[in-house]
């Protein structure tokens, strides 16, 4: 059972890497502009966005499992 958990986490991590790579692969200039704009956003706004994203992920995991 413990091994199955690590296997599932590894699959999730791999899928995250695939999803993270789609935008820079398909639209490198847009991705570069987005990264530049993100550099201008305050730390507080980034933390709030990250928190909301994490909570959305936890809620979706709860719903689908």
From TrEMBL:
Keyword RNA-binding listed: no
Keywords: Membrane, Transmembrane, Transmembrane helix
Transmembrane segments: 6-27, 48-64
Record's keyword annotation contains Transmembrane: yes
Top-level division of the source organism's lineage: Bacteria
UniProt cross-references to Pfam families, sorted A to Z: DUF2065 (PF09838)
Protein name listed in UniProt: DUF2065 domain-containing protein
Species per Swiss-Prot/TrEMBL record: Amphritea pacifica
Lineage of the organism: Bacteria, Pseudomonadati, Pseudomonadota, Gammaproteobacteria, Oceanospirillales
């Amino acid at each position: 059972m413990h091994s199955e958990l690590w296997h599932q986490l590894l699959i999730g991590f791999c899928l995250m890497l695939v999803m993270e790579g789609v935008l820079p692969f398909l639209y490198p200039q847009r991705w570069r502009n987005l990264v530049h704009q993100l550099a201008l956003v305050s730390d507080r706004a980034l933390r709030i966005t990250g928190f909301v994203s994490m909570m959305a992920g936890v809620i979706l995991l709860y719903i689908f499992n």
